[in-house]
Amino acid sequence: MDNNNSNNIKLKNNFEKRFQEIENELRDSHIGLDENFYTSINDNIGISKLIRLSKSIYIAKDDDNDENIDKEKETQQHQIFTTQEYENGIEIHDINNRLVFFCSDYLWNCENHIKSLLKIYSINNCIIYCGLSELAHISHPNSSKSKSKSINNLPNFQNFKNKFIEKMKLSFKKENQDINHDGHDDDDDDEYYQDELPDISCTIKYFPLCYSQPFKNFFTIPIQKSLFPSNYFINDLKLNEYKLNKMPEEIQDNVHKSIYSFLSFLNEMKLGSVSGEDLNIYPIGPFSSYLAHEIQTTLATITNQQQDDYHPISLLLIDRTLDLVGPSLHSENSMDRIYFSTTTPLNKSNNNNNNNNNNNNNNNNDQLNNYQPIINIETFFDNDNKIVSESSINECPRIISTINGSDIERHQNLDNTNNNNTSGESSVRLWDSLITKSLKDVIMILKRRLVEIISKENINVDISSIAGPTNIQSLIALVNVLKDGDNNGDYDDSDDNDDDGNDDGDDNGDNHNHMLMYRYNDIIEAVAAVEQTINLSSQFHWDQLLSIEKILLLSSGYELEEEDEDDEDDEDEENEDNSEPSILSQICDIIETPISGGGGDDKYYSIQEILILCVMAYSIKGLTSKLSQKHLNSLSSLNISNSVSNNNSSNSNLSGSGSVNDNNSVSTLEKIPIFSDSDEQRLINCLSDKILKENIYKDLKFLNRESNNNNNNNDNEEKEEEEEEEEEEEDDENIIDKNELNEILKKKVLSKLKSIGIIRQKYLNEHKSLISGGGSSMMGATYSSLLSQLVKSLFENSVSTGGKDIKDFEKFNSSSLVGYLLGKTNWMGRSKKREKPLDNRKVLIYVLGGITFTELKELTDLFEKTLKSSQYKEFSNHQFLIGSNQILTPLKLFNHLFINENKK
C-alpha cells in the first residue's frame, strides 16, 4: 500500500507546506479553531506548533454556537494561554491585535464564535480561513442567500461575504463603544456613539485544508463526522425528487456538507482535473451514486483552465449501510474497545459507583457528542497541582486524545536528541501498533515501553518489585514511578524551553515536576485509555456481547449451509419450525434472559444493545436465504409473464426499465421475508414487553409519538415554551398501551431493519451475501465483510490479469444517475468502454458512514498480502488510501440509525 514513489498523494506533506505559507499571519495572533480544524491540525502537524506561534488559541465547540456565549466560560474552558499575561486573564488592547479564525463549516455557523472573541479582545485585524467554498455557501438549501435552484443563477458570493464582513465590523465597534462608554451618562449616548472609532480589517479566504491522516494509509474529512447514509436514499423516487432542497430537512445539511467538503478535498489535493477529468468515481450504494452525480455535475460547470499538475485517481465510494455487521460487533481489537469507551458518554450518576439498578440507563443517550475520544488522565497527577480539573474533562483541549495521531511538534520540541522512542514519529507508531492487538497484548507493549523509559531516564527504582504481573495495575505502578522520577530525578529540561529561552510549559507551582509525564504524554494517554476501557468493560457488557455475536454469526453460517443441503423446496417452510431457531429467535431469547455474569438476575441487556444485535442479524441475513430467494424467483416469474402479455405497454413505460426492475422495487422487496413472520412478531412483542415492564418509553425519544412533528421554523423562545408545556403533560403523553407501542415499533424499528436487509439485493449484483465458505469447503460458513470482498474483487476485476467482469464496479458518468435510480440491470449513462478502478495508479476507497479499526486492519493486511503475490506484481507501484468520515462504534451506529434521522 505504501511505496516511495515521489508522485504519490502526500497528505501530511501538503498540510505542512500549506501551513508554512501562512505562518507569518499566525505569528503573535489570537487563533480560533473549530473542532474540525483542531482535529486536522493536531493530527497532521501538532497543536503545539500553533501554541508557540500565537498569543492564545480558542477551541470553538460545535455545540456552543449560541447567540450569547458566556464570556467567563469561554476564557476558562476554551482558551489555551501562551503568555503569563494572558494566563492571568489580563486583556491586552494592542493596536495590532489580530484574530485568525479557522472555520471548516459555513461562515454563519462560526459567526457567534468570532463575535465572542471580539468581546474578549480588541481585534482590529481579522482573517477567516474557511474550509468550504463560495459555491457551498450560496448553494446551501437553508441559506437565506440562496433561493435559486440553478447553479448558473446563484447569487454573487461577494455580496454575501461583504455583508458578513460588515457584521464583524459592527460587532467590533459595538464592543469597543461599550467598553469605552463605561462611566458616561445616558444623556451623552447620542453624542458618544457619533465618535469615530478605529475600523477593523476583515478578510475571508478559502482554505480547503480540513482533512486528517491519523493513521498510515488512512485519512478522514472531519467535517463529515456526523454523516451517515440516510434511509431516505433506499427508495424508488424519480430523478426529479432527488433534489437537495426536497430531501427531509434533517439530512439536508449533512448531505450538502458531504458534497462540498469532498469537492474541497479534491481541489486541495489536486485529485482529478478542475473539470472532473481523470476523476473516475465508482459508487457502490445509493447514497454513493447520488454523491458521485453531484460531484461530477458540479465539476462539469467549472470553466477554469487547468493550471497545475494533478493526480488521476479512481475513487471508490461505498455506502456503510450495505454492511452493518462490522460496526455492530464488539470485537477483540483493542482500539475498537478504546474508541468505544472513550467516546461513549455516561450518566454522571453512574460514573463513580457500581450501583446500576437499571442497565438500560447507561446508554440511553439520544446524542453522541464525543466524536473524538476523551481520556481522563487526572488520576495520574497530584490533586494539588490541578493539571486537569474535573469540570474541564470534556472541554480542555490539552487532554483531548491524541489517539488519532500525536502531538508531533510537541514531542519533537521536547526531545531533540537522537534517542529513539520519544519523537513524534514513534508516537504515531505506538497507536498504529495497537490497532492489531488485543487489550492484553497492548498492556504488554506499554509495560515494555515504560520499563525502557524508566531505564533511559536513569530513575533509580527496583523494577522487578513493581512490574511483576502483566496487568493494568502494573502499568499504573510504572506510571507512578515515572511521576516520582519527575519529582526527584535529575534530567536536562533545556529542551523544554522555546527559542528565546522561556519555559514553554506551565510553571505554576510544582507543575514543572511533570515534565517527564509531559514528554511521554503518548504513553501516559495510552495507559489511561486502557485503564478507562478495562474499568468500563463490564458496564458495557463487552465480553458477554462478543460471545453472543460469535454464536449468532456461527448460527447464520450454519443456517446457510443447512439451506444449501436441503433440496426439498416444498417442505422448507414446514421444516422451519422443527429446525434450529433462527438468529432473530435467539435474540428474542436474549431479551428475556438476564445478563450472564451481570451481577444479579434483575440485570438485562438494554434496548440499544438488543437493537444493535437485530441490526447485525438483518444485515448479515439480507435476502440470501432459500426462503427469500424462493419468493424472489416467484415474483420474477410473475413479472416476466406479465411483461410478455403486456409487451406494448411496458415498452412505452420508460420509467420502469423492464420487468425485473418491478421485482427490484423497494415496496416489493420489503414484502419478501427475511425472517419468518412469527419471529418478527415475537421480536416486536418482546421489545414492547421490555419497554413497558421497565417503564422506559419516555427515555426512548426515538420512539416518541411526537418526535417527527417539531417545527424547525420556531425560534428558541417558542421551543423553550413548547418544552415546558411538554414537561407539564409528560405523564399523560408517556402512557401508552402495548398495541400502540407495537405499531410504533413496527414503523420505526422493524421497517428500518427491513430496509437494512434489502439494500444489497436492490443495489448490488455480485456482492449480495456476507457469508463465505461452507458447502464443500472444509471450513464452516463465516462472515466475510463487504469491504474485504470488494478489495478482493478489485484485483479480480483487473483487465491485465484476465479477471472477470464485475458489474458492481461501474465508473460513474454525469448522466448515469438516471439509469441507476431506474434499476441496476439497465443502467443508462454508463460508459460503453468498461473502465476498471485499477486503470489508475492511485486508488482511494472511502466508506461513507464510518469504519472500524478491525476493518481498517483487515483491508491493510489484504492489500499488503495481495501486492506481494506474483499474480498482481504489476500493481506493486499502485498507491491505495483508505478513508472514512469517522471511526464507527456500536453506539454511534445506533444513534445514526434510530436517533439522528428522527431529529429536525
UniProtKB/TrEMBL annotation:
Bias kind Acidic residues: ranges: 488-508, 559-579, 715-734
Chain spans, region Disordered: 342-369, 488-510, 559-584, 705-735
Entry-linked InterPro entries: Sec1-like (IPR001619), Sec1-like_dom2 (IPR027482), Sec1-like_sf (IPR036045)
Low complexity: bias regions: 350-365
One GO-annotated biological process of the protein: vesicle-mediated transport
Family membership noted in the UniProt record: Belongs to the STXBP/unc-18/SEC1 family.
Record's protein name: Sec1-like family protein
Native source organism of the sequence: Dictyostelium discoideum
